[in-house]
Predict the structure.
Amino acid sequence: MAFESTYTYQFDTAVYKGAVTFPTQLFINGEFVNPINKGTIDLINPATCKAIARVSVGDCEDIELAAQAARAAFKEHWGLKVPGAARSKLLHKLADLVDTNTDQIAALEALNVGKTFHAAKAQDLPITSSILRYYAGWADKIQGKSIQTTPDKIGFTRHEPIGVVGVIVPWNFPLSTLIMKLAPALACGNTIVAKPSEFTPLSALFLCTLIREAGFPRGVVNIVPGYGDTAGQAVGESMIIDKVAFTGSTLTGRKIMEAAAKSNLKKISLELGGKSPSIIFDDADIDQAVKWAINGIFMNQGELCVAGSRIYVQAGIYDNFLQKFTESAQCLSVGDPFSPDTFQGPQISERQFERVMGYIKSGQEEGATLRLGGERHGTEGYFIQPTVFTECTPNMKIVQEEIFGPVAAIMKFSAEEEVIEQANNTTYGLACSVYTKDIDRAMRVASNIEAGTAWVNFTNWPDLGLPVGGFKQSGAGKDLGEDALENYTNIKAVHINIGIKI
Amino acid sequence: MPSTFTHEFNAPAFKAKVSFNTGLFINGQFVDGSDNTTIDVINPTNGKVITSVSEGTPKDVDLAVDAAHAAFDTAWGLHTPGAQRSILMSKLVALMEKNADELAALEALDNGKTFNWARNIDVAGSIDCIRYYAGWADKITGQVQETTEDKLTYSRHEPIGVVGQIIPWNFPLLMMAWKIGPALACGNTVVLKPSEFTPLTAIRMCHLINEAGFPPGVVNVLTGYGNTTGNAISSHMRIEKVAFTGSTIVGRKIMEAAARSNLKNVTLELGGKSPNIIFDDADIEQAVNWAIFGIFWNHGQTCTAGSRIFVQEGIYDEFFKRFMEKTRSLKIGDPFAPDTFQGPQVSEIQFNRIMSYIESGKAAGAKVEIGGERHGSEGYFIKPTIFTNVDPSMKIVQEEIFGPVCVLIKFKDEEDVIKQANDTLYGLAAAVFTQDLNRALNTAHRLKAGTAWINCVNSFNSNVPFGGFKQSGIGRECGDYALTNYTAVKAVHVNLGHKM
């Protein structure tokens, strides 16, 4: 496959027809450039295993170049040189451009990731432009405090931008995780060096054209798709990058933190893995609980950090719930992401496919009951059947480790205390859900589970006004809500002596 | 049938034909007033009628309140998520940007301020304000207090409901933006009365509000007189909050009406007699330029006008010379001419009022250094006027003139000038010019005013709170402070296990 600086992909599907053109090079200092060492990657369509396009991948040298461009931009024509109102306008403009190009970007995302076009268009894209608008609204509201202690001095805090922010995002929600970092970082006046996953750079590359069109000054946003152990590592180790925001696996999160510690002690925020419990009590609305729980684990092919992958059902409704859950899972349509009826597409890659299949095998080997699925779906592409295990015990790998696939582990419980203990028996702490009509129990359980998000009577409901982030080994820092702004500001206290003599 | 205002603008700055319906804006429609009466809108450059607009009466206020309540209960309030309110407000911003020149031209025609000021300050500021509050709409958060195991407590910041807003004629569009911005962001519906002198930009905004897609009844605008329509709003039993900008004398009436009716929440932004204090070590050139802007911008029709200028004796003569020179150079005339600085006062009533203050100054023995008389023979133009040789007992030193008239007072020391500066019923703003850090901050802190400007005057930002001490007002506008005016705080206590 030849390398061209832009590529046009022709879509001719039931749900989307059209030609989408995207740049294939790195986006540094406002220009599309080849990587210094001319690295490329062939992107694969996970539904067909066929090649999509060849695009550039950057390595350490390109990251360094991008960081320098971001540093220069921060000093010369961003940061506090540009008032919040102006940053707000640019973010709004970008949101409008994302909306105008929704179908095209959704098509690229579905093609690249394997998520359905429907999900990309109905969820990923609207969330993306909503996040941009939400943080556009914050851009001129980054406020400090005035703190008056005595009459002979004044004290106040400035919430300054940090400087150059490194952003590393994964392949499961390439666009929305990128924007979750970019939007607050830009709102606060930082410049960006972003490294999308080498597997899924298409939506980010398309976004570069919109960033230019919106009018962001050169060097404010730089995008360098690349491999984790080269480009990603370079972001973590860079002496010019002041802060890194990472979404991905816990394993990689450790590497980023180490790299930050060894280099310039850059600030870090990490949004990592999870093994989130959904707890369904006897008095829950069973039909609703089933629907939410199905979506909780099978949405996005189970490739979701907050996936409700451990489902605890109280004894009184266990049989009823299990039957309905299994029936629903059986009806989920697996197949072509561009078919109107498809619910679940392929896993992202061969490696992920093997990994998930490996967990399924271990579940069987360790003695869990395979209630549904467990096998590859079809013969082409990385499709896995929605899989349900029952009779699981706490120490099984399928109960302890993050599978990141369409595999649910269902367990029966009797008492509240017992299930809370089991739910907390994990190194993770990203999210949890509790289903009950009882107000006291709802609050008690939500309060007692060690997780950064507690959903009561639903699962995976996005609300960008509230912060998202993990307890324990699920991460540090927050995305979304007002709290995310903390990750992207440096607080300076200014004391002015207006009368203290020494 | 409400009339249509049609006007052909043919100025260097703006050439276009403008045409729009000038009825009352109630429930998304433009309608006649209940009495089918109209109010003439006068061009202050020549006293001629520009057009007539429908007049709102107390009965129309009732209709508007009904529409506002219906909208609040169905299509607005907490029925519309903040993110959606934000999107609508952003659409309004885009429409204001698209029609910015027209809005500026209407403002200049109606109020008499220059097209340039209208475009660069009034319209630009209004756009920035709505944009700023659009960003708050989905961020109206409450608190969760200390969490314990047996009780959850949190506060909800809910919209109040139907709010009444009464705005003045000096910055018609900007004052509308300062009011509807936070009110809409917080989810309230609005019944707004523009000044009977300057309704045009408010009415034009109603057309944009419709175009933006706001549900009918969310914003209702009725032009009317203060003692009928304004009074109906402040006395209304189904309006839970009134916000007013205008004179202190009318502010009292609003507060009384609120007290007598339903104890509605009141915020007032009233008059001022703001001191501008210039120390020996000030940058004289800058002090002069800001002082000019402080009193003569907007023809002195600014609540924060720096109308009492205190100059320290060390630089008095130099300041005076340059201040006179600059004042002499100000061009007065056609608001649409590109080099005009000052247009006419807004109305005959205001013209007469200012002229009578000038006469009172002369009669009391103050010296007119420049101006002190009408400019030209047509329209309500008054020459920029400087009085010296004044004493604190004079009306021109104590009372708000609201015209291009300032008093210049020499002072010796800091203690004395701060005392004089604070010797007023008002407390809206104050300015101090000095390079000395300690003196700048200490003086700013000691001046009893809601805004203290250091080395500037009349400098406003959408995100910085604004309002008065003492009889200059109650409450704050702009910034997130304004949100407090438009939220009702409900505390929710959830008992999670404490047994009686």
